[in-house]
Write a structure and sequence with these properties.
The chain has twelve helices and 36 strands. It is mainly beta and 746 residues long. The chain folds into three domains: 285 residues, Porin (Beta Barrel), CATH 2.40.160.40; 145 residues, no CATH class; 242 residues, Porin (Beta Barrel), CATH 2.40.160. Helix 4 packs across helix 5. It starts with 8 loop residues before the first helix and ends in a 7-residue tail after the last helix.
């Protein structure tokens, strides 16, 4: 019978650290401590001809992942953290259990994971194969230094049905082993030990906190935090070692305290004969790792791990060489014959406009309008190519120095989207000439430049003669995935989209898309059982048709006042809804804070997605707060009325990297009860966006994005309106431009 101890969390934490440290001493006799260097590089590129926007050095291999997709040995965790910003995807299988894992290293000391697992032949809760979703979070308490091990606290499967629920403290110490050969160099030994509760406390318990812990029951709606069970019940010591004799090969052994009670005693998924697990892993490439294992004395397992980091692109970014700053001495001879009235010469300003427009076009930019004065010129442009708006600003400044007369000392550079000037970067020509080859030139040019709100367009502005009206179209493949149907966890439709747009004047756009479904199986999804209006769960009924009208709308963007932006949209917005929508956003150019209000009156579309509608109509709208937290984090809070008529709020947190990578999560709580909401209890999910330029190595503003909800239900749902304001506006405001200042000279 397990003895019961009255221990505090602090006592358990200290004990975990002591266990890890003691184990390290036992295994480390004669070993040398391994120090892992950090690699840095000068952000300025000294090589002319091309500019690389990413380092080319080979990154150090990241920690290996365990069967739960987090740093660990095999089936137990370690205290290691992935490199900051890493996005890891892994698959593991053993004993009839498959786990699909996604982990994001949100901060150097904090990571979060999502997992979708299937247990074959469980034969419980009405399912032969039991599918379940879970979330993990890990926080590092302190880093490894000297003889002190790295220590991490983790919550495993803490929000859901809790089939894999566990909590733990774990410590890890690294040691360098003797050189095996000149070719392989020194190896590395990692030793981990910790204390676990829940699953990790179900075998070999040495104590108890809070009495008997409720067992996994399954079959409910899930999705709710089980905080009343955290660090409760029996706890057990676990541990393992990983030896890396080379930078490619890893040998592993561990002692696991997961008794797999549900799988081996309540059901008959596999037979657990031992607590020892063994494995071998091979680092196939910098981003891919493969492993094979022998687990619990009876099972063979394998895993595949893939790790991506925004800071290490698949293809190093290479962009065309920038045009050098042309010193004003180049203009001296020509300007000697001019007077200060040259801006009044329509012929001369037209020549300058056309020269600048052509140079911008070669650089992938589009001239919108230009205003000439004898000593100051404002240039408004569009940036359809570069992910970094500051990179585009720098290229515009170089072009202005090459084509404008020497009397022009002040450049005012204004990025434009949807006909709206977003901000104005003011820089002196003399500062450009002085800073081009100066040390710390990026910080220098940022210090002498000003970023202000864009003023109304001058009446004297000269417009580009190629802009309006403008018509464009494109063909592109599309994919539409659907997740977590118990009968088939992953479904997908794919086909072709014909997308077209027509811009009759600045700020106006008419857009539409025709969709041709070529193949897929979403049409076979389970029918909706929702007690709420079916605003999202009738996805299978919308997937029955081959040729559909995806959207068709008209929208206008404008600035009604200082720091104010507005949008009005009418038409068919998305697959399921059309109507009218209006939005107003307050966003000062130098402020991290923005406030917005959106109102929509929408009608549900008929299932054939042509021009007919169903009877369901509703008013939906939200007040929104946006705040840039620093370190590329963006907070959004929305409160209002959702599509099913429920009231509540949505919390969103995204990390948006300067190269266009985005990873974020969200959850929505409304007045709909967990029982009425159904499976999942409330709406939640995560999303990511990978820029094409990161994958292809060429400048591109487009990207591949995806939003994954563990369960798609009807509560907490918003209409998808094209052209919402905040995302595009903040990209060219002060904080983002300052964060990207290193790109000015690229």
């Amino acid at each position: 019978m397990t003895r019961s101890f009255s221990l505090t969390f602090r006592t358990a934490l200290i004990r975990a650290a002591v266990v890890g440290f003691a184990t390290s001493l036992i295994f480390a006799a004669g070993a040398t401590l391994a120090w892992v260097p950090e690699l840095t590089r000068d952000p300025q590129n000294p090589v002319p001809g091309t500019v690389e926007a990413a380092p080319r050095f080979k990154p150090l291999p990241p920690p290996a992942l365990n069967f739960y997709g987090t740093p660990g040995i095999i089936d137990t965790p370690s205290a290691e953290m992935l490199p900051d910003g890493t996005y890891a995807v892994s698959y593991s299988w053993f004993g009839g259990q498959s786990r699909y894992n996604i982990t994001f290293q949100a901060l150097p000391w904090l990571s979060a994971s999502f997992r979708y697992n299937g247990i074959r032949n469980l034969n419980l809760f009405g399912f032969s194969t039991y599918y379940d979703r879970g979330f993990d979070v890990r926080a590092r308490l302190w880093k490894e230094r000297g003889w002190l091990p790295e220590v991490t606290m983790g919550l495993q499967d803490f929000a859901g049905t809790g089939v894999y629920a566990a909590e733990y403290f774990v410590a890890t110490k690294r040691f360098q082993t003797p050189v095996l050969s000149r070719r392989s160099g020194p190896g590395e030994l990692k030793i981990s030990a910790g204390l676990g509760w829940g699953r990790l406390g179900s075998h070999g318990a040495i104590g108890n906190i809070g009495g008997v812990r409720p067992s996994f029951v399954g079959g409910g709606t899930g999705g709710e935090l089980s905080y009343d069970q955290w660090f409760r019940g029996d706890f057990s010591p676990f541990g393992g070692i990983e030896w890396q004799p080379t930078d490619r090969l890893s040998l592993k052994a561990e002692y696991s305290t997961d008794a797999y009670v549900t799988e081996t005693r309540i059901s008959d998924v596999f037979e657990r004969k031992s607590s020892l697990n063994f494995g071998v892993e091979y680092q196939y490439s910098d981003r891919a790792r493969l492993g094979a294992y022998y687990l619990y004395g009876s099972e063979i397992g394998f895993s595949a791990q893939f790790q991506l980091n925004p800071k290490h692109p698949l293809t190093p970014m290479v962009v065309p060489a920038t045009q050098p700053i042309i010193p004003r001495s180049h203009w001296a001879r020509e300007e000697a014959n001019w007077n200060q009235n040259w801006p009044q010469s329509t012929q001369q300003t037209t020549v300058f406009r056309d020269q600048v427009a052509e140079a911008l076009k070669k650089d992938g930019l589009i001239l919108e309008a230009i205003t000439f004065e004898a000593t100051e010129v404002e240039l408004r442009y569009r940036n359809p190519r570069y992910q970094s708006d500051m990179q585009a600003v720098g290229r515009v400044a170089r072009i202005m120095s090459a084509y404008l007369p020497a009397s022009v000392e002040t450049f005012r550079i204004t990025p434009v989207r949807s006909g709206i000037g977003l901000s104005t970067v003011t820089v002196r020509r003399s500062d450009l000439e002085a800073q081009e080859f100066a040390a710390q030139s990026s910080d220098g040019i940022a210090a002498v430049s000003a970023i202000t709100a864009a003023a109304p367009l001058s009446e004297d502005a000269v417009f580009s003669n190629e802009l309006y009206p403008a018509f464009s179209y494109s063909f592109a493949p599309y994919t539409k995935p659907s997740y977590f149907d118990p009968a088939r966890p992953f479904r997908i439709d794919f086909g072709l989209d014909l997308v077209a747009s027509y811009a009759p004047a600045p700020g106006w756009l008419i857009g539409g898309a025709l969709r041709q479904r070529l193949a897929g199986n979403i049409a076979n999804s389970r029918p909706s059982n929702s007690v709420l209006p079916h605003v999202r769960t009738d996805i299978s009924r919308y997937a029955q048709f081959g040729t559909t009208l995806e959207n068709l709308y008209v929208t206008r963007h404008w600035k009604p006042g200082r720091n104010l932006y507005a949008r009005a949209t009418a038409g068919i917005f998305e697959t399921m809804f059309g109507g009218v929508s209006g939005e107003v956003l307050w966003k000062p150019v130098n402020s991290p804070l923005a406030l917005g209000v959106e109102a929509n009156y929408v009608v549900q579309r008929d299932y054939d997605q042509r021009f007919s509608f169903l009877d369901y109509k509703t008013f939906t709208g939200h007040a929104s707060l946006y705040y840039e937290l620093g370190s590329n984090y963006q907070l959004q809070l929305d409160a209002g009325r959702y599509l099913a008529g429920d009231y509540g709020g949505t919390f969103s947190l995204d990390r948006v990297f300067n190269n266009g990578w985005m990873v974020g999560a969200f959850f929505t709580l409304t007045n709909v009860s967990a029982a009425d909401f159904g499976e999942g209890s409330f709406d939640k999910g995560f999303r990511f966006r990978i820029p094409l330029g990161w994958m292809l190595g060429k400048p591109n503003r487009r990207g591949f994005g995806l939003t994954i909800r563990p369960t798609q239900r009807d509560g907490g749902q918003r209409v998808a309106v094209p052209g919402r304001l905040y995302g595009s506006i903040r990209e060219a405001h002060r904080i983002r431009l300052q964060d990207q200042r290193v790109r000015f000279w690229e």
